[in-house]
Amino acid sequence: MKRAQLGMAFALLGMLTGHAVGQVPNRSAQPGQSGPIGQLAKPSQSSTIGLASSATITGFPTEGGGSLMPLPPKPTPSFAFEDQFNKTHRLQDFHGDILVLVYGDKASADANRALGEAIHLAFHPGAQGKQAGAKSAEPLMVRGQSKGSRTPDVHAVPVAVIGRVPSFVKSLIQNRFKAAVNDTPVWLDFDDHLKSTWGLVDGQPNLVVVDGRGRCRTKGSGKLNHAQVQQLVDTIEVLRRETLGLK
Q1: Cα distance between residue 159 and residue 38, in whole Å
Q2: pLDDT tens digit string along 58-103?
């Protein structure tokens, strides 16, 4: 994943529209700010799933006004999003993997970057410190999964929540994204699907988690503290275990 290019693309979108965007992280912030995270959350040793790995979360405050909320395991709506290459992505396309949509407005850009990176690196620790353009790291195996079985991946996807715009503006936005990011799809929500379905808190990160069977399971909003980020990571790991039929 080319984080620098993707961050540039969101900056372009912010200048073009001023509408809501979700961003993957860059590495320009200082420790204790919204990103990058020095040591990121991994599935916790103290969680109920009893995983062996753990790490101290830094870069997130001890106190925070954010919230995580479990959702009834219902199928996701049949939403489709175009990316900058005019390719269509559907929430149902990720069966067998965990999908995390991170979105927010321009004021939440730094916090969204940090949260997206925390999620990605928690399940892809081999990506830590890699340069832009490096091959994506393989996801951590799930403890107890059968030998030779496929490891459920975790996709932290930034979605630009733009809303309805004239056709020429839509084309302009897609072309700017394409010029800035030529190998990483960025989903563009021109229909306010995320805002109308799961809500959007202005100026704060927002997220929704879809499990391996295409069901909404968790949503979050606001500035999550380090304990909440760990809870989110542990929740995602539980969903990976569910995908494999593990308890």
Answers
A1: 25
A2: 567 777 778 999 999 999 999 999 988 999 999 989 999 999 999 8
Phi, psi for 15 (deg, rounded to 5): -70, -35
Of residues 225 and 160, more confidently modeled: 225
In this structure, what token pair is assigned to residue 81? 């999003």
The burial class, CB within 10 Å (0-12 / 13-18 / 19+), for 143 is middle
Q: Residue ranges of the domains in the chain?
A: 3-243
Segment 144-154, tens digit of pLDDT: 999 999 999 99
The token duo for 237 is 């790991």
Q: How far apart are CA 13 and CA 225, in angstroms?
A: 27
Kindly report the length of the chain: 247
Q: Is 21 left (phi over 0), alpha (psi -120 to 50) or beta?
A: beta
Pairing of strands 154-161, 187-189: parallel
Q: For residue 203, what pLDDT band results from cuts at 50, 70 and 90?
A: confident
Output phi, psi for 106, to 5 deg. Answer: -60, -35
Distance between CA atoms of 47 and 68, rounded to whole angstroms?
16
CA-based torsion, 223, 196, 20, 155: positive or negative? positive
Query: What is the assigned CATH class of domain 3-243?
Result: alpha beta
pLDDT tens digits, residue range 153-175?
999 988 877 888 898 899 998 99
Share of the chain above pLDDT 90, in %: 43
pTM above 0.90, yes or no: no
> CA separation (Å) from 159 to 101, 109, 134, 146?
7, 12, 22, 34
> On the CB side of 34, how many CA atoms lie within 13 Å of its CA?
19
Query: What one-character DSSP code corresponds to residue 106?
Result: G
